[in-house]
Each structure stands twice: as C-alpha cells, then as structure tokens.
Write a structure and sequence with these properties.
Number of strands: 0
Radius of gyration: 12 Å
Shape: elongated
C-alpha cells in the first residue's frame, strides 16, 4: 500500500491512478474516465481555458489522500 501523500501526488498527475494503487479500482477508473471527458471537452471547446483541468486534478489528489487508508 502507498502512503496517502504518494497516492495524492500520483493522482494529481494521472487522475484515478492514486485510487487504483490504494485498491479503489472502480473509483479510480471512474475518475480517470471523467478526467478524460473533461480534458476532451475543454480542449475541443475552450482552448483558452485548459487550466480548469487542474481543479479536477486537485480534487482527485485530495480523494486519493483521504480515501481508503490501509484497507
């Protein structure tokens, strides 16, 4: 098991991966799919405001940090 800090850092860069590493497989996959959808929509329609994806990345990092701890 990873520490909450490492999971949060991983999940910030690849949303959902921190949750998957902590054993929350379904939650991690769902968060990754949502991140992909948000990225595609922002990239397609709001090319000037792509920074909004970082708000979602912070959310997934926080979720990985506070998620299931040690089983």
């Amino acid at each position: 098991m990873l520490s909450p800090y490492v999971s949060a850092i991983i999940s910030f860069f690849i949303p959902g991966l921190g949750q998957i590493c902590k054993g929350e497989i379904i939650k991690g996959i769902i968060l990754f799919i949502i991140a992909a959808i948000i990225f595609i929509v922002l990239k397609t329609y709001l090319t000037q405001n792509i920074g909004l994806i970082y708000i979602y990345n912070l959310f997934t990092a926080y979720e990985a940090y506070r998620g299931k701890l040690n089983g």
